[in-house]
């Protein structure tokens, strides 16, 4: 498929190492992390970027909770951040009795819980080796943890179809998996819908089309619900890493980019306008956070 340059994009934040997990609150606040440089950040309209969780390493995913807390993945698992006080509490630090190396992308399930995946960033970032297999898992609103897969090369973007019947999961080195969701909200056996070796972040629009960040080829792909490629867009950045729709303007798609040794500060968040409105991810409603004091209102 021929590629086209994305036109008219707006730079929202720049000058970071490798931006991940862009998320937009209902009030328009943009949140993101710097995977390699560390930290979680917030960009309010008309304001400079604020550091909200300094130094946290390898944050590849974030989800907003109805309590006002922000769930942040990263090294050692998941923590909840209170944006008002800056306090954090642990949410998940092990799976099946084994300490978590790192949690990458996360997504609300629409029932108060969330899906997430682990990733071996120690091998990838520190040893320069292929990662050990990671897990794809679900945490219910009540805190029940269900491991769905234990053979994921590198877990990335997660999204649900507009009809609520399908769950999509991006696995780097493979592509996009599609799972039928059962009455309990959990997926059955998956099929590989799209083969894309450098698949990364993922989002879905209101027509069920899939927007996929392809990190090494620096493309932004759009696929129809049946997996047919619809368009390929490029941006003048070294890597295209993750995507998220703006709940205040669903025709606005935020795209996170990353740098490397040749372009060490190429991490940015840009926005583009798309024709079909998107589906921002749902918030969680974790019972463990319902009574947490000093949280944002």
UniProtKB/TrEMBL annotation:
Give the keywords, sorted.
Answer: Hydrolase
Cite the SMP-30/Gluconolactonase/LRE-like region domain residue spans from the record: 20-257
Pfam families registered for this protein in UniProt? SGL
The keyword Zinc-finger appears for this protein: no
Please name the PANTHER family in this protein's record.
Answer: LACTONASE DRP35, LIPOPROTEIN-RELATED
Protein's recorded name: SMP-30/gluconolactonase/LRE family protein
Q: What broad taxonomic lineage does this protein's source fall under?
A: Bacteria, Pseudomonadati, Pseudomonadota, Alphaproteobacteria, Sphingomonadales
